[in-house]
Structures
1.
Amino acid sequence: MINTLYLPELREMLETHNSQGLRDFCEAIHPARAAEFMAGLTSEEAWEVLQHGDNELRVDIFSYFGKVKQLEILETQAIEQVAEMVAELPPDDRVDLLQEISPQRLELLLSLLPIEERRDFQRLSQYPEGTAGAVMTTEIAKLSELLTIREALNEIARQSEDYETIYYLYIVDDEDHLRGLVSARQLLTGMKHPETKLYEIMDTDLITVDALDHQEDVANKVAKMDLLAIPVVDNQHKMLGIITHDDVIDVLREEATEDAHRIGAVEPLDVSYLRTSLLTLTWKRGIWLAILFFFALLTAIAIQEYEDQIEKWVWLALFIPLVISSGGNSGSQSATLIITALSRGHITLSDWLRVVVRELMMGLLLGAGLATMGYCASIFFVPDHVALLNATMFVVPLTLLLVVMCGTLTGSILPLVFEKLGWDPAMMSTPFVAGIVDILGILIYFNVAIRFIG
Amino acid sequence: MINTLYLPELREMLETHNSQGLRDFCEAIHPARAAEFMAGLTSEEAWEVLQHGDNELRVDIFSYFGKVKQLEILETQAIEQVAEMVAELPPDDRVDLLQEISPQRLELLLSLLPIEERRDFQRLSQYPEGTAGAVMTTEIAKLSELLTIREALNEIARQSEDYETIYYLYIVDDEDHLRGLVSARQLLTGMKHPETKLYEIMDTDLITVDALDHQEDVANKVAKMDLLAIPVVDNQHKMLGIITHDDVIDVLREEATEDAHRIGAVEPLDVSYLRTSLLTLTWKRGIWLAILFFFALLTAIAIQEYEDQIEKWVWLALFIPLVISSGGNSGSQSATLIITALSRGHITLSDWLRVVVRELMMGLLLGAGLATMGYCASIFFVPDHVALLNATMFVVPLTLLLVVMCGTLTGSILPLVFEKLGWDPAMMSTPFVAGIVDILGILIYFNVAIRFIG
């Protein structure tokens, strides 16, 4: 998806050192578009183009580059200029990037950063990946409650460039304890009474998150409350940072893709599909295929136990895929429903009994449906000297009913158990559900067969 | 997840008609929290509580209620009061709700709405579900480019309550053609020069969407550009509405859950898991189980063709689940990766050749891995009078290699084909991939067996 529209012109301007043209390019169009047009350039060329915008624009356009190009620039381009730009990056993005460059380069870069940015990096990089602390930004508009609306407006006007958002203003005391929130909207509508103090209009019933909360929980909170940003506090309610709506969107998409990958039995990728190397992909898929292979081997061992039966009634073999896939599919349906409901907060662990009862009922209904279809199928596949009401005709239907119930039960209980144990239910459930249900399916099938025909 | 903390108090206040207490409850806490505390009340009780806040608060709290309760209130409570509140709802939420109430009630309600809100509803409800037009809101701050910063600030201060966001101000001409964008941040930092005209500072390189664009594409655009809101225009670039960051979050979560459900072979649910009736769930799962059942029957027919071989070499039956699951799993991995990459915009149709070649390579690597494991398994399961290098020992490994390659190919090509045809790749791919790969797997397996042993 490389936009080649401007590529020849950009390259020509670079060759002819057309500074004016390159500056115009940087300044005239939206930074996101500029980055898009530069996607076809090498990281060296891209960095050279960026030198023609001012530092603010440079940061803006750079932040829309793909991560691979960003890292290449940080690793290879002249360290002083790179450090100058890194100092201006939003703190959360800075941490994300710096954590992926080589240790030597990182040390060099840090030594060139202003002391405040360096400390900020050290503080932020302590939070484990996936926590609120690791996503938050520290460039927040913090004000004293004793300011008037007029003073607050002047303050923002003066400093707005330093803040990631000026639409939520946080009111803190001398020790940075969070006291309240005033929105830019409140300030603007309050301009008629410019001498009003902030404490008179501030909202004090605040929704906050802890720095160690999981990013997915944070994102769910922001989504539920329709917030622009959410403050991150420590256990003494001291203000550490904020997480803004655009970070929340990134978190939600990342988590949703991870969930989908796990449901599809792929270890989540760190970068996009085409950027992931073949070997990494092989590993991330191979590990699950190997686990599932192992389960299938157990199924083979289970079938081996019944080789005599298969030899006697070969038609039993025909239904092995049907039995296995019916159990596996109903199980993975249940697992998918429970996993997504858990991750969206539609159910919690305390609902477990309701969920299990529901899934049992579902298993009964779906199993009965498949059993009916299984009976009809038996008419065609079971050797034709068997009468319609002979016990043999009921082997497949009864198996299907039991297997589907077994699938919905396993598919609903396993994710709940994983959630209870503090493991990611999406991470392990679906393959395990398939594995367990496959083996149980074979055992049910041949036991029913032995009872009914044997 | 019903919060029962305030329930007894609320009920007591209702019984004793404690207006002051109920007003305090509505006013003192965040509307989202108030709604949470009221989750245990009946819709009648909840509505009665809301009567104690002013209309603005009523709308705020109401908008955090669950959809079931919202609809119950609209359907059953006194129509005049309901209409008064409906008139104040954000236009996009209003359309969402009104489209689900009974036609008679809708007619009554519409007749009680102010003419402007009624027209607005009629206009918005024309857009098909899932389009930008159906998600957008029409309460936008539109200004003329000839205003000065001071005039613009006054204008917002005066009218801010009418707009969903005042942080992006849209500049339009007399006929509502979109000309530019000024952010509240620009206005605030520009206060030092209050006589500057808006056209001097407005941003004219705007990112817009068409009213008929799919909501998922819109959400992806907003996410990519880190926007607070995106304007919706018609084909003459007339401004129709905006879609704000909170709507984008809702769209992204909705789409991600739908994708996950489809990957798990469940028709996406309209409401949350516990609120979906058993019958609806049965239908949404049963339809896919039935389709997959049909595929499994085709597999049975395929196996039937080879009954003679199974009778001769019963051990072949042991590996049927292994062959089928290896193909199915590698296929669903590929499908999952391609579907998520497509929906996040990481690949497009033009990448098809690269994707297919990658998946073929993956198939080779993964298939070779599974084949090695399959050879080891053969040592245990193939009857022991066969020598280690006898052709029979290679039936399972070769089958696995071919089946996995067949899985990765089908799993990557089908979603691309569905995308090309304009169908949702997530909607149909995974079950189809499983079905096709299962049958091909059986055909490959027995053909390899016949060549090598027969």
2.
Amino acid sequence: MTASNRNESVSTGAQDFAAVFSMLKPHMAALDVFMRAQLDAFEPEIRGMADYCIDTSGKRIRPALVFTSGWTGGRVTTDLVRIASVVELVHLASLVHDDIMDEADVRRNRPTATREYGATAAVLLGDALFSHALNLATRFPTTEVCQAVSDSMRKVCAGEIIQTLRRGSTNISRADYERIIDLKTAELFRVSCYLGSRYGGYPMAFVEAASSFGRHLGIAYQVYDDLADFFGDEKRIGKTLGTDLVSGKLTLPLLTLMDRLPASAQVELVEEITGKRPPQPALRLAQMNELGVFPVVTEAVQQELRLAEAALAPHLALPPAPLLMRLCEVLRQQVGALRERPQT
Amino acid sequence: MTASNRNESVSTGAQDFAAVFSMLKPHMAALDVFMRAQLDAFEPEIRGMADYCIDTSGKRIRPALVFTSGWTGGRVTTDLVRIASVVELVHLASLVHDDIMDEADVRRNRPTATREYGATAAVLLGDALFSHALNLATRFPTTEVCQAVSDSMRKVCAGEIIQTLRRGSTNISRADYERIIDLKTAELFRVSCYLGSRYGGYPMAFVEAASSFGRHLGIAYQVYDDLADFFGDEKRIGKTLGTDLVSGKLTLPLLTLMDRLPASAQVELVEEITGKRPPQPALRLAQMNELGVFPVVTEAVQQELRLAEAALAPHLALPPAPLLMRLCEVLRQQVGALRERPQT
């Protein structure tokens, strides 16, 4: 369930993002055309597999960040389309690999690449998508894009590895949790804003501010997603609740619950996470409601959103800043929607 | 067994390469220092895992091609060391992923990364190594290295995917086989020679010749390796013979045998490859001896070696050419050593 927790589980989130950014329609259309054209770069035998992954049903959150951070009045530039394609391909490749590891059968309402082509082919298909992303990144006059993206890729993988190695362990601090999501989620959000603003032609002071914004938004998004794993509406989110508990992942809601449970009750939760006792998501959700876990985690999201906004505050005169600010509002609304239906 | 067939199974091959190129000792020492230093680039939590993969027990055939193709009298240059490190990291990453798919437990006499850290972490570790290879490739003034390497990486993956999808299938022509090994093995040999000669400062006519040499040497090497899977000395090669038959891979020795068997006997072999009947490697080896498979496959190796040599012929005055030529001789000796002990 690693994958589903990487900004992919909450399908409504992206729809809301998309609604806010209906102004990005021509950009997204250009992105789709561009990404489809990339299929020609793959060997004929694997083109169909690549096509299967580069589908259009994705939410394109990272491309939206690229286009928004580089916004100069609506013009669709080749540079930004190419950068958006690079970050999306890296994201799609990482999903292909996540699905293998999670033995996931379905994503976006159809079989995963693993299910369709087998795990062996899926490992290699992910690699081929990664390679092509980096190859696209070299089509700039300097090595800057390739350098930034390959660095982010390594960080995303490191974050996932650390999380994987700690599954089923209860020896995780809040600082550990923050480091994991910073690497596995926030890094690609950050680099999307970094490259978007840079190739939108903005001064370095703004590029740095946008990068910081992207990072904090990414952290906020992942914490929200982890909260939704317990407090979300199953139908709306399209997945079973409490999957993190089932897969032994100590996310912030569980960390906070652990903290607030009396010592005697902690033992049982530890046993659930370490797989020594069947997990009881419904009980844990009830306890979270009882012990005030929700407001603590919500506050963590708000805190990151405030940091994201603060980073942009000195630059509100630049076109991308107010647009990026609106993303914070969207996420606030989504968190608010969760609060409206606690599942007690 | 995909992995073991990718130039890694025949341990003597590399020792011979190394013996011939004892002149490369300072280059290889510099490469080891450089690769160790790369560990700092990885997040502390995964450094140990990366270190486990960047061990010094590898044969470094691709780095040897880089250093030889760029040979200008023995000077160790930063550019060539960095390029050698990039191609070796790509190779090591692909081995990590191959071992996952083959469920291999042992490589180079110790547990594989999959065995040591689990398949999940190994998928991501391979990704992290790939990312870092590409990141190193960006440390050149232009995007050329990154572009060449990412392109090769995609081709290597494509070759492996095609081979994987065709495992257990008998609908493979000799042309299909050649295409697979051209992609999965020869491409990285080719790019090693391409970048080596290019950053050795040689003119484009030689760079193209060296690339062509590398490609043909890579094909020859893989055909030799596939031959050794049946005709090699088990002790010397350190693996069970006939693994390609067991894993349903139609390599040139098997393709040739199929061709020469009477139609009635082909059915049984087809059933062995498609997994409908237990494979009988000893019987197949006896038949290969009887039906003259060995000289046919040997001739395929020789043919590629002649093409490799022909590519270099107009450039014998340049320092790398005679050194590269010697690699062809080494491979000829190895093929000759196989012929000496047919296992009937």
